[in-house]
Amino acid sequence: AVGAAGLAGCSGNSGTGGDGADDESGSDESGSDESSNTMDSGSSGPSTVTAEGSSTVYPISNKGSSYWNSNSPASDGEYWGSNDDTSVPGWDQIETDQNIADYFAGLYGFEATGERSNPPFATRVALSHSGTGCEAVRDGLVDIGNSSGPITAELDISEDERDENYVDHVVGRDGQPVFVSQAIYDAGVEQLTGEQIRGIYQGDITNWSEVGGPDQEIYVVGRAEGSGTDTSFRLNMLGDANAPMDVDTRFGQNQQVQQVLQDNDNAIGYMALAFSGSGIQAIAIDFEGTVYRPDPDAENTIFDSEYPLNRDLHMYTRINEETPEGTDMREAAFLNMFLTDFGQQVFVEDVNYITLPTSDIEAEREKLPDQA
């Protein structure tokens, strides 16, 4: 739960934050009493759930927030439920006559409004990067810290410190690809080995001709230090989250890396799978004789859990005196929406990420407080 000062510090907030004073019953073990929910100061309703962080997790979190805030009725087959024209994936396992946020919030004891665009409580997602998101949830500035890298690496803490202070909610996975400019791909660089990519990012390979491409200098693009994408790439590709890299430029967000690869004809970069687009191409990567291709129908694909750059996408909540279990009822209601067949298909798969297997979804649900 976040206090008023924390909410005011989150970009894009309207300033109507909870003060945390009414959260004394938040230690209730079942969590089913609505009085345990963080309330807006001066209002009768629960406070806005705020999230910030990773540009990789942002497409999932932001789309979920948009659906939640729309509180679309069950008859709206485009966003929620079913009508004569369409049925949303996963709806057949829910089949409720409630509006979308009313339904998921109601599972945790919140009263339905029955009104479109008026959910039981609002949600708000800010875009930064993983390190900032982890710092924000640590400092009580937001309820949820979105991260594409492990919080242990982002905050330089031990696993014991993580377990004592945070709950790690994994909502999906990213088969982190490596991209090259379209011109380089068209010139024949459709596949590289892991060793070649390491050589490029450590400054040992500097010309595309060294890896079967044109006689052209390699423009090496990296993510900003502190981003989860950068942390995961160093950890999984170079073997150490703090491994040095020889790059020509760094950018804080996936969208910026995508743009620079589109604008240059000699670039290489790494970013989230959701940011594939025209003018760039994801390449196949040979790791010790196994070639992983950016094609879900290939024998070995970057969508496989065995793909060495595969990574979890995290939404962290904070363990504190007000919420000793680490996740209050507002946060749980929102997070649970992603941990359904509906949520996995609409918010994860539909933005080009990898859905969680059923066993993992069940394990993630176990981290949430009991439903009302």
From TrEMBL:
Q: Does the keyword Isomerase apply?
A: no
Q: Which keywords has UniProt assigned to this entry?
A: Signal
Spell out the Gene3D superfamilies in the cross-references.
Periplasmic binding protein-like II
- Region annotated Disordered sits at 1-69
- Per UniProt, residues of the PBP domain are 115-324
* Entries under InterPro entries matching the protein: PBP_domain, Phosphate_ABC_transporter
Q: Which SUPFAM superfamilies does this chain map to? A: Periplasmic binding protein-like II (SSF53850)
| Keyword Nucleus among UniProt keywords | no
Query: Which residue windows does the record flag with biased composition (Acidic residues)?
Result: 20-32
Ranges of Polar residues composition bias in the record: 37-69
Ranges in coiled-coil conformation: none
What's the protein called, per UniProt?
Answer: Substrate-binding domain-containing protein
The species this protein belongs to is: Halorubrum pallidum
